């Protein structure tokens, strides 16, 4: 036996290349810094930043399901907004039933009511996702044009059914007592609900990352995004995995709907399609199929929307489009593209 | 002669031919056949939407591009004309200049969107256009000093097109030919010309390349056609046609606002019309627009009757309430994507074979 084994050599990639990979991570702090310069006043900045983070994380909740479904199933669900709206309405109904709890001065009762509302909503929208996948989407796998059309149709039907069940008028959704009003820290007024939204959003992000990186299900999902056929060939039933991911995505949309409804305090059947514009921008910025990209994109959109709403209200929504254009010029596939252009 | 007008694109089914001729005759003699202002209103809407839907079909059916920004171009044409008439007074010159600006702006914007984002996949493009269109709608509602914001613009149109104008002293065939009728015929004529132009485009060599790009972009590239160039050209053409439909709408309604031109609902309507009529067939646009607008106008009355008849049954009566007509259209839409992917026209043509 020869002593000179050929060892594999792993070459360190050049620093510049590694930095370029991480560059999107720097965008959020950079934008925050920019916000500080524009607002000029640290306490205003703090208020806006928390508001931006809350908005961004709520959008992240809605967008993460969408982007995961796209990555895994190669399906873009234009009806995702319908789950958001339905979620908000179901949450409204549950919170109305529990109005004794939400009006109770005890914080614990308030949080319990919210927890129950969120759980019921997520279960309901998850089940709805099951039906949606089976009835609406299943016949059109692999046909993008038809997917777009059919899921749009599904959204119209869902919106109209909301009108049938809850009536055509906008409803007022009031926050639990403990989450109304704001804390004043220093000079900055921070709305309590926004902090809760930030907490839930961050917890969800951490949980999702954990599941995706450290569990077998996550491994299969990631592998499925990369190469579904291979996972199938290894003996896993990827169809069932698809369905579970779709249900989780729908449940997350429902969660996002409850939270967004409580944030806006008014819910309409069309709220889903309105928020979908922001969700799509986030998904595009993040790179279709990527949860991390989606997270960064959501934070960027939330922060930018709030800073510009303060500095120049008229250009607030247009600014997020501008952000999308700039990001796409820099990285045409989004920040962290997972799915190769097909 | 007739085949030349239709660019050799036969309807391809006797029943379809009959229906198309009926629609053409109905629209051509609408003021005489269906007296009253509501039918005329409906007929004018049908003419305008035939152009709008046909122009969208050029994009979605012939080129395979899903765009959600079509109402933006429609709105640009309408707002251009509206602004021309508001700022320049009620003259044809002002309307023409405004229309020209609107249509050119639509073309430029379509060119920018096309060059910028048509390289990406279909789904990506759909989302980008959705975002751009909604940003445009927000912009229009924010710039209220120019566009009237949510209230939109009310303006006067040239006197020759208003009901106060009389062309002849005597009624013709029992109908007084007033400016409204003239205005209708202006819209009918322009819509007919635009529609025939679109038929001409899709049956030209250019149209065939579009189909090739739609069916297999890779192969089309391999033969030497730049797919992006053709897609961009189709986007620009269809945007200009949509803007011209917007011009007609602005002239007809004497009002332009976000709800009539830019709203997401109109976009959804256009999508429904294209799919129900049949994608990739210009005649589908005619059938789709006519069916849809007739349903929109008259189905609700019918559903009101159904609601009355089922008043005792709680859920059912809510489901057939006139306001729910869109839901049934949504169901019809989903079903037609599954079972009649080629729409009414494709179905009729297949029936012949």
UniProtKB/TrEMBL annotation, chain A:
Keywords: Amino-acid transport, Cell membrane, Membrane, Transmembrane, Transmembrane helix, Transport. InterPro entries: ABC_transp_permease, BCAA_transport_permease. Coiled coil: none annotated. Its main location: membrane. It comes from the Bacteria. Transmembrane segments: none annotated. It is a multi-pass membrane protein. It is found in: Cell membrane. The keyword Glycoprotein does not apply. One of its GO terms (cellular component) is plasma membrane. GO terms for molecular function: transmembrane transporter activity. The keyword tRNA processing does not apply. GO terms for biological process: amino acid transport. Belongs to the binding-protein-dependent transport system permease family. LivHM subfamily. PANTHER family: ABC TRANSPORTER ATP-BINDING PROTEIN (PTHR11795:SF442), BRANCHED-CHAIN AMINO ACID TRANSPORT SYSTEM PERMEASE PROTEIN LIVH (PTHR11795). This is Branched-chain amino acid ABC transporter permease. It comes from Pannonibacter tanglangensis. The lineage of its organism: Bacteria, Pseudomonadati, Pseudomonadota, Alphaproteobacteria, Hyphomicrobiales.
From TrEMBL, chain B:
Keywords: Cell membrane, Membrane, Transmembrane, Transmembrane helix. Pfam families: BPD_transp_2 (PF02653). GO terms for molecular function: branched-chain amino acid transmembrane transporter activity. It is found in: Cell membrane. GO terms for cellular component: plasma membrane. InterPro entries: ABC_transp_permease, LivM-like. It is a multi-pass membrane protein. This is Branched-chain amino acid ABC transporter permease.
